[in-house]
Design a protein that fits this description.
Distance between the termini: 18 Å
Strand content: 15-25%
Number of strands: 8
Largest sheet: 4 strands, antiparallel
Shape: elongated
Strand order of the largest sheet: 1-2-3-4
Number of domains: 2
Structural class: alpha+beta
């Protein structure tokens, strides 16, 4: 979930708990966004992995520490009960955890006591539908309506937003449950991955054996079934020796490029992914490996590996790539 949606949902939940009390609304909304402040820990995260993004700040422990600090500092900033400050900030932080766990970007809610992940795979990590709704909503609530319209109209806007998010999350979760139950009958897939469209899903199966990784996937749409695929790609996990020459076919380009792509990008190594290869006009072969999970506007985070036609070292660079097949 994007930051604006985290903050807006926390704002709506806080409103449901305490009504229109600005100091508590501000505290709850702030707590809804604070877990993503772990991005500031990036320089330290390599040395202390618990500070990584979606680490300790996305846990019940981290959220409770922040709520406790809010209970102490809140009354000193704006009058109010420390217990109410604690309540709304705890709810806002927990809402953040649940929203991230709702997506394909898992969180560890029991850190530092357990690394067990929460990942429902019911939505994308960032969905531009909710991002757009949240951005417009803040403009309407805090810019257009605040102190400019009757309070009843403000309440009606709140009710519409609550109804939207309840319906949105319900549709996504229902779709995830339905397609999950159909996996066995759809070709032996064992995992479901959401797309930005709640009616379109990716069906996947990943196998690692004998030093090789194999990914099989297909695109599934409600009412139409499997509309693309199944596609299959595989490659060695570790680099293999090959002649200092250009690949002779797409299969060789994918085989040689796969370990290079994994080494160049943690996204490729740690998410479901797929590869394509094609020959350029001059005889060079290009293989592109892209993530099926980090996508936006038809493009995906990936790695492009180019093998010169004259031979020699491959050129490797990270990129956002638009697949030739409709992948998501």
């Amino acid at each position: 979930m994007d930051l604006l949606t985290h903050v807006l949902v926390a704002y709506l939940l806080t409103f449901g708990i305490v009504g229109f009390q600005p100091q508590y609304l501000a505290a709850g909304a702030l707590a809804g966004g604070l877990p993503d402040a772990d991005a500031l820990f990036f320089p330290l995260a390599r040395r202390f992995p618990i500070l990584r993004h979606h680490g300790i700040t996305h846990s019940l422990f981290g959220v409770t520490v922040v709520a406790g600090a809010g209970a102490l500092l809140g009354p000193a900033i704006a009058s109010g009960s420390p217990w109410v400050y604690f309540l709304v900030m705890e709810v806002g932080g927990c809402a953040h955890i649940l929203q991230d766990g709702f997506t394909n970007f898992s969180v560890p809610p029991l850190l530092p006591f357990s690394e067990r992940r929460l990942e429902l795979d019911a939505d994308r990590a960032i969905n531009f539908v909710t991002l757009a709704v949240s951005a417009v909503s803040f403009y309407v609530l805090l810019g257009v309506e605040r102190n400019h319209v009757a309070f009843d109209l403000y309440l009606a806007t709140i009710d519409v937003l609550v109804a939207f998010f309840v319906l949105y999350f319900s549709v996504r979760l229902a779709g995830r449950i339905v397609v999950g139950r159909r996996l066995g009958a759809l070709g032996g897939f064992d995992h479901v991955l959401p797309t930005g469209n709640p009616f379109a899903w990716l069906l996947l199966k990943e196998e690692v054996a004998n030093g090789r990784s194999t990914t099989t996937w297909a695109r599934y749409v409600f009412g139409r079934g499997v509309v693309a695929g199944p596609y299959r790609a595989e490659g060695p996990l570790e680099p293999t020796t090959h002649p200092e020459a250009a690949p002779r076919c797409a299969e060789e380009a994918l085989e040689w490029s796969y370990p290079l792509a994994r080494a160049a990008s943690r996204v490729i190594a740690q998410t479901y992914h797929f590869g394509e290869a094609f020959e350029e006009a001059g005889g060079s072969w290009v293989a592109v490996w892209y993530s099926l999970e980090f996508t936006a506007f038809g493009r995906a985070s990936g790695v492009r590996v180019r093998f010169p036609a004259t031979g020699g070292p491959a050129e490797v660079r990270s990129t956002f790539y638009r697949p030739r097949v409709r992948a998501f």
